[in-house]
């Protein structure tokens, strides 16, 4: 019998605020950070090294230490567990960790303790895929509909999605899974768009140059940040349409800065630029507000989800017809267990999922999820495009590879969540070399 | 000039799980705890001692340390501030602390970082009332409608409550404030109900005895925990009606254990006991779920709010007509600034607020809020009754005083939030005497 022997959680922070990478109307100076979980075992991995699981949640700096400590507390009950028993039933492990009523009080299922749950479960899913010798997406599409539903967290969802409905969605897709794997391979992967051009802190010249580069690199979708100043937004969107033309899709993102009536007013002025969507027009908690905005700004779509705190919020977003695009976050929702539930609801309600990415490592995770969605859940690429931001990939041992606007299919075992040990050491906060200097 | 000189945050935990005080269907073994903030200054207080502010948020044990550290980080920007400048504009201080975009990412406005915001702002409001030499409720009802609206956090609410509407509510109540103060004094305080009888872990004999005592003590409302086992619930509610009769009001509380269809089914069996309300029938995040349950279980009322994460959730609860009773929590919402906004929305939508209390110190806080509501906001006592649980008051220097089912009006300066230094020392976790033994 092999056991989980060790939990280490690292406070890793990248000083991105120095260059205004990632700047938007709400988040002016984030330091992209990870509460990075390493679960050690005394089991032999497929490569002869000890089997290990790597996972993280994403933050933008201060308070990353809170997630580190919360993840440590979440993971401690795992130490001493039988590796195979845990990995063979990640639904049971998830339910057990989620049932800690004292930690639950601090959410429930939201904020720091839920981000910590994401980090720990991400590490367990990574470990499971490494044990299987498969990339996570492949391990998941090799599971039966029953196995997938058993690990999904369907609590509080039965008024919107029953277990039987979830099974029916997965069973309908099952016979044709192989066809869609072949299709993705033929296309060169899963389609993505880039946000790298459009940060609010960039100059007009840099904006113009980055947009032109994005089109040259094969992207058909680009995204710009808006919401700080209306005249500025009009000017920058004018530049954007000059550079990318009117055939490429333009998305805009307000990062929660508006009240509901203000969002509707502002969008009257930005609608002439024909954005595909307005992202995070108001508080991410405001289901009814998003629904009201959506009714007012159509045919511009409404997108939200990177701050979608849990599956209960997404359930209501679907029930209220509040979203045209669901942008779930792989490090805010509690890993595959909760994300599966959101994908299944999205499929039932016919809402395309275009996951949030960027930050640090989110692209590495979401490629697996988008691929899973196409192969085994929604079976569609229509209106689906996954975010890609070209930052910080060099710190991962199995970085995502984007070619011609597509995430190529990951092939290495795991959830692509492992960072280079040198990066972890150098960017550890506050004692790593990059922070001491 | 006097300045805020010092932030101390204490991890205070009471081992309530040893006696099953506070046990319910979701929270079987809570250790009632406080992340307890002490803000020191070099200003002279009215009593000659240095002016100090005391505040806290409430948790049930593990993870209280996360709130302690988050509160410390939230409060650090206050050190070195001019005391009068800060206390003269607590709206500005609130907005500044809330605008920390890096900490905001961890919510936003929910979970650990929001509980920490509550603790810190509670300490500032306590300090402001001590400086004024008044109990908090009195300081608040001595403020003008404009001053109250200026400190209220109305962000994201303008589709439900404009600043002008908020002012109109407060102005309508202003001329008759003195009359209602006199009315409360004549009645012996603000009406309350007791939960002390109904914890799930208590035996039938203890339940019967405590219910009889409650009626003898003058309570006209009692509350029981339900939701773990339907046959048990029927048996315990039968006992309750035998003891209290059919004239006293009986409330029941499921503490979030049900899915929406399950709540509706379960309540078909409990409705014959004519409960005034079913509290927390499902996930506290589920606005549309509460609305569906409310439509199904009427005339039984639906109550929720102790886990209501922020004002945006309550806005939607009101917009969706999801609640008959709003049970906001004084240590989960971000203190007076956010609580005022919820009371003002409740007044506009005609929903009575019956605050959650119990835990440790929540009764001490909410008495001030209920009194404020009656005098300056809703102007009504109809369908309003504030929770009271007779636990842990001995640890406070100005404990609430309940006589004949009423909170008597606090008279000491402050927000009644100060604990005895000996209690803080003895119950500090993990090194206090009570935890070492």
Automatic annotation (TrEMBL), chains A, B:
SUPFAM superfamilies in UniProt: Enolase C-terminal domain-like, Enolase N-terminal domain-like
Mandelate racemase/muconate lactonizing enzyme C-terminal domain boundaries: 204-300
InterPro entries: Enolase-like_C_sf (IPR036849), Enolase-like_N (IPR029017), Enolase_C-like (IPR029065), L-fuconate_dehydratase (IPR034610), Mandel_Rmase/mucon_lact_enz_CS (IPR018110), Mandelate_racemase_C (IPR013342), RHMD-like (IPR046945)
Cofactor: Mg(2+)
UniProt keyword Amino-acid biosynthesis, yes or no: no
Alphabetic keyword roster: Lyase, Magnesium, Metal-binding
Domain of life per record: Bacteria
One Gene Ontology MF term: magnesium ion binding
Pfam families noted in UniProt: MR_MLE_C
BP term (GO), one: carbohydrate catabolic process
Name of the protein in its database record: L-fuconate dehydratase
